[in-house]
Amino acid sequence: MPTSTASRDSVDVVIVGAGSAGCVLAERLSRHEKRSVLVLEQGPSEWPDASVLDLRRLPISDGERYVTHHRESSGLPVVRGRGLGGSSTVNGGYFMRFHRGDFDSWQRPWTPDVIDGAYAEVDEKMGAHPFADADLAPTALAFEKYWGGTFPTRPLDDPWPLVGVNRVRSNSMDGIRRTAADAYLRPHRDRPNLRVRTGATVERILLAEGNAVGVVCDGQDIRAREVILCAGTLGSAAVLLRSGVTGERMRVREHREVLVGYRLREQLTPGPLLPTVVHTDDGLEIRCYRDDFARYIGGLAVTGPAVGVAAMTPGASGEVYLDGGGVGVRLDQPDARVLRHLSRTAREVVEMLRSSSFGELVVADSIAIDPVLRTSQHAWGSMPMGGRTDWLGGVRGVGHLRVVDGSILPAAGRSGPHATTMMVAAVIGDVVAAD
Fold first, then answer.
1. First vs last Cα of the chain: how many Å apart?
2. pLDDT of residue 371
3. CB neighbourhood size of 130 (10 A)
């Protein structure tokens, strides 16, 4: 390993990453005025403005300031947020809880009361609310009506999703994303025991006698009593791999997706990308995207709107590995049973779009199933609790090292992982802060 310069800094806790989980932990752990907390964030220091946070835009194209681009081995783009707030700055504003049953195998401290309380706090801080009818395009209203004839519809005032029609809950206010940094970090930046350093690249973890004793950041040793990785599933994997804590490759899980494309008879007004979904009893999420992705992401070719069918549980496997100076990702196809479910449900979506409910909205001969198996940008589970980490994210075999982000989710949820990752950070932060 490369040699770093002499130690010039020492803190109680160093948090790597100021994203969705890192912001929650920074706030939690810095409540105790005698505990010094240093957050190291690779991205820029500027707070994103409204043009970046507008739900009618996904600022994730090449050259955008608040994203890091990776590449899956087959050529699929893999994009993650960077800077204060991480991916909560650039995602689609989807902020749904897992289903209650998704926690059945989780062990203490993950009791229903603890999970309920943490979700409620995170929802409030992030401004989580269901999209209103006015946020839905005519296609989305027709989508809800169509599937409502087959499945139950979740009441708008119930924050817990169900198998059925679910209006998406969003981390936004007046069409502007509410980021984790806005909710948890920005209000407390004046705490004297909390420091945030941006433009900081963590190269590896400092290890001594089986314990984490700090990190090497931009060639400098930073000593700490505890190191907490919150750099996201891919970012945390890179630090672990460079540090020799894991093997040369790490297993990861992902939600693969099939798109059913079509053309609209009339162009829609701008609005949020994904306001409503259906969760099926075989673990799929049917996503009624509002419009062509090219309307949201600069540089994309115009292909038309789509309905997505994503395999949420059990998810597909894959690997993360070092690729030169960055992270490489390889994703497998789902197993044969899941592929059959995806194929069958995609055909059911075709039937939906050809039905009378969509006759005045969709050009019938434009409907087609995209042959490319895509990714939901939801990599998770590389350091699962109950496996490579304990039930508080502590890395087995390495003292004073914890991972708290999507890496530690132990099983697939039937919703996307953003809200649950923040909930997990809130619970672990409470336990660690009490020690």
1. 33
2. 96
3. 20
**CB half-sphere exposure, 326, CA atoms < 13 A:** 10
pLDDT mean over 243-256:
94
- Per-residue pLDDT tens over the stretch 130-163: 999 999 999 999 999 999 999 999 999 999 999 9
* C-alpha–C-alpha distance, residues 37 and 224, integer Å: 9
- 8 pLDDT band, cuts 50/70/90, is low
The reply to whether omega before 159 is within 30° of 0 (cis) is no
What is d(CA 175, CA 127) in angstroms, rounded to the nearest whole number? 11
Exposure of 182 in the CB half-sphere (CA atoms within 13 A)? 19
How many whole angstroms separate alpha carbon 79 and alpha carbon 419? 18
Return the pLDDT at 1: 29
Comparing CA positions, the residue from 200, 243, 221, 249 lying closest to residue 403 is 243
Q: How confident is the model at residue 435 (pLDDT cuts 50, 70, 90)?
A: confident
C-alpha to C-alpha distance for 328 and 249, rounded to whole angstroms: 10
Relative orientation angle of helices 20-29 and 418-434, to the nearest 10 degrees: 20
pTM for this model (two decimals): 0.96
8 A C-beta contact, residue 243 and residue 103: no
Q: What is the mean pLDDT of residues 118-123?
A: 98
- The whole-number average pLDDT for the span 357-374 is 96
State the pLDDT at residue 184. Answer: 98
Alpha-carbon distance 169 to 339, whole Å? 28
The mean per-residue pLDDT over the stretch 170-194 comes to 96
Across the chain, mean pLDDT equals 95
Rounded-to-integer distance, Cα 17 and Cα 20, Å = 9
What distance in Å separates the CA atoms of residue 64 and residue 56, rounded to the nearest whole number?
16
